[in-house]
Amino acid sequence: MWAFLGLASIITAILNIEKWMRGQEEKFFRFASISLTALTMCAFYSDGAGRVTAEDWGGLMDIMPSMSGALWVCVGASILINGITLFPKVKQGQNKPSIRKS
Fold first, then answer.
1. Residue 82, CB half-sphere, CA atoms under 13 Å: how many?
2. Fewer Cβ atoms within 10 Å of its own Cβ: the N or the C terminal residue of the chain?
3. pTM above the 0.85 mark?
């Protein structure tokens, strides 16, 4: 389950950047990507908890050391990628970023 949620998070992050580059509204994709990243972490934790309950120590020793580092990297990347769209896009020929008025 966590692999599916992680893949969906990556796809929505890419869509977020694509919409931002085109100057379109990207808030939905930013929210979806961050939410799916959080759900990925919860699903991974739940998987680990299920292995502890089942006393599958071999499974824990195989998965947890490598995946915990990978999840840190993926969450950090998700935050950075989705954070890019919080800044105004610099248009070509301008030195200063344009300010969006709400």
1. 22
2. C
3. no
Q: At what angle do helices 57-84 and 2-22 cross, to 10 degrees?
A: 10
Closest CA to 15 of 33, 2, 1: 33
Cβ neighbours of residue 84 closer than 8 Å, sequence gap 6 or more = 17, 20
For CA atoms 72, 75, 77, 79, give the dihedral sign: negative
pLDDT tens, residue order, the chain (102 aa): 878 888 899 899 999 999 888 888 888 998 999 999 999 989 888 888 888 888 888 888 888 888 888 888 888 888 888 888 888 776 666 555 556 665
CA–CA separation, 8 and 99 (whole Å)? 31
Residue (of 43, 53, 45) closest to 9 by Cα position: 43
Phi, psi for 18 (deg, rounded to 5): -60, -45
